[in-house]
Amino acid sequence: MSTLAKMASSRLFWPVVMLLVLFAINLVAFPGFFEITVRDGQLFGSLIDILRNGAPTLIIAVGMTLVIATRGIDLSVGAVAAISGAVACSIILGSPDPGSLATVAVAITVALLISLVLGVWNGFLVAALGIQPIIATLILMTAGRGVAMLITEGQILTVNSPPFKFLGSGFWLGVPIAVIIAAVVFGLAALITRRTALGMFIESVGINPEASRQAGVRARGLLFAVYTFCALCAAIAGLILTANTAAADANNTGLFIELDAILAVVIGGTSLAGGRYSLLGTLVGALVIQTLVTTVYTVGIPPIATMVFKAAVVTVVCLLQSPTTAEAFSGFRRRLALRAEKGVAAS
Amino acid sequence: MTKLLEAPATDRPTRPGRGTGTGGGAPSGSGRRRPLAAALGLITSPKYGPVTVTALLFVAIFVIGGFRYRGFFSGQVFLNLFVDNAYLIVLAVGMTFVILTGGIDLSVGAVVALSGMIAASLLQTGWSPGVVIPLILLLTSVLGLLVGLMIHVFKVQPFIATLAAMFLARGLCYVISQSSISITDPTFVQLAVSRIPLGAGLSITPSVIIAVVVVAIAVWVLHGTRFGRTVYAIGGGEQSGLLMGLPVARTKVLVYVISGFCSGLAGVLFTFYTLSGYPLTAIGTELDAIAAVVIGGTLLTGGYGFVLGSVLGVLVLGVIQTILTFEGTLSSWWTKIFIGALLLVFIILQKVLTARRR
C-alpha cells in the first residue's frame, strides 16, 4: 500500500498511467501492437513507428524542457525548424552535386549554425533585454515563417539527395536514424545537466534569477545557452522532418510542433512556472502524444479528430496535476484515515 | 502600488481640479507645461506612450502610402481598413481584456473557425440565422467560461488552458466537416453584400457597425464600471487586488468568457466576410490579435492598456497589408516579417518606458 502511495505521489505516475492506458487500448484494437519484426535487417512494428514519428517532437521537447525549467518558453521552435529545413534544401538544390555527402554535410552544418544565431537572438531578447519569453519568442515565431518563405521564395523545395534522405528514413544497425539522433540528444542533455551541476543552476534560475545571480550563478549566460540549445534542437528536428519528406515547405514544416513539444513537457510533469524539470517525464510525455496519434489511427477514428483527443489528454493531465485536485485528494485521504482511526477506536 | 492607483484613471483625477475635462487626453499634470514638454511627457509615459507612438506610426504609414501610390489617400481606403478587419477588431477587443489581467488567449483563431463551421453547417440544414447566431455566441461564451474556470479554480496556466481550448475547437471543426461549406442563407448573404452609404461615395458594411458597437461597449465597461477597474487592478497586482477585497475570482473567469464571446462574434463577422465555413480558416489569427493588442500599447504583463489602442493596432496591421497590396511586387511573406519587426520595436519601447518609470 505504501509503495503504491509513493508511486502515486510521483510526478511521473499520471503520465505513465496515461501511456499504459493508451498501450492497452492499442493492444485491444490491434493485437499485434507489441510485435517487432526484423525485415531486411531493419526493425519494424508499431512501437518502432511511434518512436520514429515521435523523434522530432521529442528532440524539440528536450530543448523546451530546459527552457521551461528557467521559467521561460520558446514558441519559435516551429519557425526555426522551418528555417533550418529551408536553408538545407536550398543549399542542396543550389549545389552542382546534390547527391554528394560533402554537399549534405555543408548544408546541415550551415542550417545548424544559422539555428545557433536564431537561438542567440532569442537569448538576447530574454536575457539581455529582459523581455517576457512568450513574447520574445513570439517575434521569431511570426517573422521566422516569413524568413523561411523568403529563403524558399514561397515554393516547396523538393530535393533528390540520397544522403539527405537517409537522415529522415534511413536505418543504422536496424534502428531508424531519427530514433538514434533523438536518443543521442536526449542522452547528452541528461548527461550534461544531471551529471553536472548545470541542471541545478538551470533550476535555480527558474526559481529566482536575481537570487541565483547573487549566489554566483551566471544567470544570463545560462539563459543564452538554454535558448541556443533549444534552437539547435529545433533545427535538428526540422532537418529530420524535411529529410523525411525530402521537401522543405516553409508553411507546414514543424507547424504546431511547438505546441506538441510544450504539451510533452507539461504532460511529463515539468511545471510551466519553472524551477523543476524532468527529462524522463518529457520522454514519457512525447511518447504519450505520439502514441495518442497512433491510437487514433489504429482504433479507426478519423485522424482529423486527433486534436480533440489531444485537448482531452491535456485537460485531464493538467487537472490531475493541479494543486486544487491534489488538495482535494489529500483532504479525501485524510478523512478516510480519520474514519479508519475512529473505526479502530470504536471497536 | 502606484500602478494600481493609477491604472483605472477615469475622469476622477481631472474633475475636482479644473473643470476643463481633459478627459484622459493627456496624463495628469502635464497639461500645464509647454506643448513640447507635454508632448514629450505623453510619449515617455508608460501608459500613453505606446498608444501615441502607434497613432503617429499609423498616420505616418498612411501619409507615406498616400504620397507613393495614386488612389491611396482616399476615404474609402481608410474605411476599407475597418471593412476588411472588422472581425480582427472584435477579436482584439476580447484579447485586450484577457491581456489586461496578465493572461493570454491562444484559442481565438480556432474559435473563429469553429463558429464559422457551426454557422455554415446549421444554416445548411435549414436553421434560421436568428437561432444560429445566438447559439454560437452562447457556445463560445461557455467555452470561455470553461477555460476561465480551468485557469482560476485548477490553477492551470492560461497558456496551457487556452491551448487545450484551441485544440478542442480546431478538432471540432474537422469533426463537423473536413471540407468547405458555403453559406447560401439569404440573411447572411444580404448582410455580406449590403453596403451602408456614408455619402460622398463612401460606404461601410454592417460588420463595421457591429465592430464599432463592440468597441464602444468595451471602452465603457473598462473605464466606466467596477468590473473594468477590477480588470486593471488584477493586471497591476492580483494579490493587491485580492487584499483590497476586489472580486478577483469572478473577474478573472469573466474575462475569458468575454474573450470567448468576442471570438464567437468575430467568427460570425468572418463568415459574413467569406460566406463559408472552412476548418483551416483563421490559423494564426490569435497571433494577429495578440500583435494588434501589443502594438496598441497594452502591456503584456497586464495593468496598462486601452481598447482603442488595440483598434489602432489592428489598423496598423491593416494599413501594412494595404501597402503591400498597393506595392504589388512585394510578396505576402513580407507581411509576417514586418509584423515581427513591429512587435519587436513596440516591445522594446514598452520595456524602455516601464524601466524609466520604476
From TrEMBL, chain A:
Q: Fetch the InterPro entries from UniProt.
A: ABC_transp_permease
Instruction: State the annotated membrane topology for this chain.
Output: Multi-pass membrane protein
Q: Does the keyword Calcium apply?
A: no
Show the stretches that span the lipid bilayer: 12-30, 50-68, 75-95, 101-121, 133-151, 171-192, 222-243, 255-273, 280-301, 307-329
A Pfam family found in this protein is BPD_transp_2
Q: Where in the cell is it found?
A: Cell membrane
Query: Highest taxon of the source?
Result: Bacteria
Task: Output this protein's name.
Answer: ABC transporter permease
Q: Does the keyword Membrane apply?
A: yes
Alphabetically sorted, this entry's keywords are: Cell membrane, Membrane, Transmembrane, Transmembrane helix
Question: Which source organism does the UniProt entry give?
Answer: Agromyces tropicus
TrEMBL record, chain B:
**Which InterPro entries does the record cross-reference, listed alphabetically?**
ABC_transp_permease
Where does the chain cross the membrane? 48-67, 79-100, 130-153, 159-177, 198-222, 253-275, 287-320, 332-349
Q: How does it sit in the membrane?
A: Multi-pass membrane protein
Biased segments, Gly residues type: 18-28
Q: What is its main location?
A: membrane
Which key words tag this protein in UniProt?
A: Cell membrane, Membrane, Transmembrane, Transmembrane helix
UniProt-listed Pfam families: BPD_transp_2
Transit peptide in keyword set: no
Stretches the record annotates as Disordered: 1-32
Subcellular location(s) per record: Cell membrane
The cross-references to PANTHER family, in alphabetical order and at most eight, read: ABC TRANSPORTER PERMEASE PROTEIN YPHD-RELATED-RELATED, INNER MEMBRANE ABC TRANSPORTER PERMEASE PROTEIN YJFF
The protein depicted here goes by the name Sugar ABC transporter permease YjfF
- Which organism is the protein's source? Agromyces tropicus
